[in-house]
């Protein structure tokens, strides 16, 4: 039986969204307790139904254009962490939505996003990807702007006969700091409502203490596939025993997870290391809860993965997927220490973890999606992918993409149908 939009589940799937803990340690302990409850009951998080998705959601170029505008131009995007702009004058270039912006921290400590196009003749004002500077100068004719976008240098201004007063301020984009993250919205003059966008998920982000994260390393990964096809690999552990048999399958459980949702499409996906069952009858003091990995999805394209806590500290990685076209995806992966500047041993451990994660993404996840995506166009018209109940994260993600864009409607079926 097909189900229309009005018959679909509510936007936040009713799967055990919990009250925010006051610390990461407490959160992990609480989640591990729920993992063990699942083990005792022989349960895991499951979607209510099987989902079918037309493959045109990955292939249609016209659909992609609308999707890109709605999700990447008209919705808040994570430009960076607050600690990536540590002091007045710190800046980054953020161009991944297709809109060239300079995101900077001003003398007043506020973050701002400005169009990185000189209003004189279109040259780039900022050319370094990141750095520090309270002024930015276009190399074409040396027009100079401060960290608030005001023109503070204009050679031979008299030659313009007073006709350029409307060119002395760079266009501004909504930009705001919340929970250790810097958000922008890539439509000049629009309104960005982060309270509505984040909702109660903001309290969950606070637990991660992102405002104290310290940058360690980064890498870019390009994949010849649709960005949603690449994103499908992040939110189900069904593929671990097969695709990751030589990497993560030796570490993590594949048939056990907790899945929680918030607001417009944010979620947390948690699954334990293998052999969690051996802790069912052990006291909490012996639980390896500090090793429990946590994966947060900040709709529509940001994944924050919190790694295990070792003797020398914790780490997190931030993956952001940016479509370059209907069939090309750019993923930016950043690694951070969780609690301030790390020592040399911690940096070495984080970089080792980064190589493991990046290797799995490049050689396993994106390898299979990259080789498969060009073949999707050969499937019969009207062909649908099928997502099982255990692929709850990918189901939830596509359902919320459908709601946010209005472009397609997944079909749902259950045994009763």
Describe this structure in words.
With 417 residues, this protein is an alpha+beta fold. Helix content is 24%, strand content 25%. The chain has 9 helices and 21 strands. The protein has helices spanning 24-41, 56-59, 61-73, 194-198, 201-206, 227-231, 240-243, 344-372, 392-405; strands spanning 50-54, 77-81, 90-94, 101-105, 111-115, 130-132, 135-137, 144-146, 151-153, 172-173, 175-178, 181-184, 214-223, 258-262, 266-270, 294-298, 302-306, 315-325, 328-337, 384-387, 411-413. The strands form 5 sheets. The chain has a 7-stranded antiparallel β-sheet with strand order 13-19-18-17-16-15-14, with helices on both faces. The chain has a 5-stranded antiparallel β-sheet with strand order 6-3-4-5-10, with no helix packed on it. Strands 20-1-21 form a 3-stranded antiparallel β-sheet. It starts with 23 loop residues before the first helix and ends with a strand.
Could you outline the blueprint of secondary structure elements for this entry?
Blueprint: H1 24-41, E1 50-54, H2 56-59, H3 61-73, E2 77-81, E3 90-94, E4 101-105, E5 111-115, E6 130-132, E7 135-137, E8 144-146, E9 151-153, E10 172-173, E11 175-178, E12 181-184, H4 194-198, H5 201-206, E13 214-223, H6 227-231, H7 240-243, E14 258-262, E15 266-270, E16 294-298, E17 302-306, E18 315-325, E19 328-337, H8 344-372, E20 384-387, H9 392-405, E21 411-413
Antiparallel strand pairs: 1-20, 1-21, 2-12, 3-4, 3-6, 4-5, 5-10, 7-8, 8-9, 11-12, 13-19, 14-15, 15-16, 16-17, 17-18, 18-19
* Number of DSSP helical runs: 9
| Percentage of residues assigned to helices | 10-25%
Task: Flag low-confidence runs.
Answer: 1-14
User: Strands of the biggest beta sheet: in what spatial order?
Assistant: 13-19-18-17-16-15-14
Computed structural class: alpha+beta
Beta-strand residue percentage: 25-35%
The total of beta strands comes to: 21
Main sheet, how many strands, which sense, barrel? 7 strands, antiparallel
Output the radius of gyration.
Answer: 23 Å
Overall body shape: globular
Order of helices and strands: HEHHEEEEEEEEEEEHHEHHEEEEEEHEHE
